[in-house]
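User: My advisor, Dr. K., asked me to get a structural model of this assembly before our group meeting. I'm new to this, so sorry if the format is off. These are the inputs:
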Amino acid sequence: MKILYFAWMRGKTGIGEEDVSPPETVTDVAGLVAWLKTRGPGFEDAFSDMKVVRAAVNQEFVELDATIGPNDEVAFFPPVTGG
Amino acid sequence: MIRVQKEDFDLATELSALSAGNHNIGGITSFVGQVRDMADGEHVGAMTLEHYPGMTEKMLEQIDAEANKRWPLEASLIIHRYGRMEPGEQIVLVACASPHREAAFEACHFLIDWLKTKAPFWKLEEKDSGAAWVDARESDADATAKWDKGDA
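Assistant: The format is fine. Below is the predicted structure of the whole assembly, which you can bring to the meeting.
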């Protein structure tokens, strides 16, 4: 599973992109977040306030209950500020 | 039509190209967003726009398609830049061409409102106190939501 981090999410996790293999019990975005948070203080910090974290699966905005699989591209980022 | 690019753009050139050869067009509206030198009372030396390559193009295509569905446009264009820009530099261009002005004005307003909350861009401002990511504004979400109440 490919994970991308943007803006301050990238700053806090220290990475922009990674390939991960979460346990099979991870079936939705919320589950993935819970698992990612166990990987270190940077991740714990990045996901500490989910009110300011948005997610996309395969480049479409999703809610935290969206299902995910091993071949998906999941991105985490703060609310967007285009224009 | 949409374009995501690092380079600057020339408004006159883009508007000429947009309407070239189409005499059904009675009016063209455009909005150009540019970098301000102030944010929350603090001086901004420059701004870096980061985006999500792939998703950005996809979202802009969707927004452009939605505008063309809601209004009778003869042509439309979104150009959004990324990278580092200094105050006064152009960030974004939205242009709409239609037989009549109402559709052109409304669609242009709709496009800039929607892309502020739906296109995956993030702004890092270089202030005197250091670099800081710009927070999304509640007012931008409200501006997007007002188009949901329409009859389209």
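One thing worth pointing out at the meeting: The radius of gyration of chain B is 16 Å.

User: Perfect, thanks a lot.
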